[in-house]
Amino acid sequence: VASQLLDVLEWVEIDGMKFRGTGMNFEVIDDVLHFFVDYNYHVMRAKAPGIKMNQMKQEGRLK
Cα(7)–Cα(12) distance, rounded to whole angstroms? Predict the structure, then answer.
């Protein structure tokens, strides 16, 4: 099963984009398969509209 997971999870497709799995490894502990894989991708989020800067009040004095 682990070798099948290595083949199947090397590339996954999400919304028409392909992502490659990295750092794939597995181990069997007490007859239970533990499979690990990482997928790296960037998430772009829209910023909420609002005030970007407030006004600043500044004073200066000389002696």
Answer: 11
pLDDT for 50 equals 76
**Residue spans per domain, the chain:** 2-39
Unique residue bearing structure tokens 């894989």: 37
For 29-50, how does the pLDDT look when each residue is reduced to its tens digit (9 = 90+)? 999 999 999 998 888 888 878 7
Whether the Cβ atoms of residue 40 and residue 22 lie closer than 8 Å to each other: yes
Buried b (16+ CB within 10 A) or exposed e, 36-50: ebeeeeeeeeeeeee
Contact 47/25 with Cβ under 8 angstroms? no
Q: Which pTM was predicted? A: 0.59
Q: What's the whole-number mean pLDDT along residues 14-42?
A: 92
The single-letter code of the amino acid at 10 is: E
